[in-house]
Amino acid sequence: MLRYVFRRALQTAAVLLAITAATFGLFYAAPSDPALIACGPKCDTGQVEAVRHSMGLDQPIVQQYADYLRGLVAGRTIKDVDGTPIDCGAPCLGYSYTLHQPVSAAIADHLPVTLSLATGALAVILVLGIGTGLVSALRRGSRTDRLLSGFTLIGASVQIYFLGYALQYLLVYSTDLLPLPGYVPLADDAGGWAAGLLLPWLVLGFVNAAIFARLSRAQLLEVMHEGYVRTARGKGLSARRAHLKYTARGAAPPLVQLLGLEAGALFGGAFITETVFGLGGVGKLAVDAVVGNDLPTVVGTVLLAALCVVVFVAVADLVVAWLDPRVRLA
After folding, report:
1. DSSP SS3 for 88
2. Which residues are the signal sequence here (predicted)?
3. Range 203-212 average pLDDT
4. What are the chain's domains?
């Protein structure tokens, strides 16, 4: 197991290094002028040159990438448009000349919203997705199974932006059943925190739980007919214990891998959900950066999203290897 963990850690590090190189090459080595884009249309020639020097764009490409990696590990000093030195601590993701602050600081300001949204949505996905899939599998072919299958099909087909706006209109503006979505820090008001994120949790969780439920139903049905499960039942083990001890463990690996992908995507920024409900998370920060041509912030949020996906997928792979020892030999 330790050898597999070490090998998987090396693979994760290699993937992250490749992502940083691809992102750096895409945004900084492109034919367009990153200094002009970062500084904005109101900057004069002197300010653009100052930004170009601050970003290291007057250095060779290899030196630029080395400085970028060094900033991620040890931090660096960046100059603002007016020449003011700014300490960008590790991990230094660059400096936003639009927001006038380091990108890492901007992400840190928006990260609590994304963490709150992703945590609640994952809870909905786990409870609703696994619960619905389990009930459908145990009652295969029944009216309940057909009803839940149709319900999950609708959930898998509907778009988040449509469902979000529709439920917001029906439950907030028309009937006042739910409060207006928003974010209140958990430490300030736990009740307001949960109330403001309830509708975003339900919308984001429902759409993803529908896909999770359909996969969990298929996996459970497949494992239920395996020989070792039938043997356990034949030896007198109750259906409940057989499903908990054997069926759940056999069906878990694909679900864990899907959950790792979902968690990585959510913690990297739920772009559509945050935009629909006006939540100031990392996803909304990335959307605003794209609209405003804030190149350093775009690069920083892309790297954060990639980091979240890679790390959560790696953790999911380790859990799968623990559940199924055959994976360690692959």
Report:
1. strand
2. 1-29
3. 89
4. 23-104 (no CATH), 114-329 (1.10.3720.10)
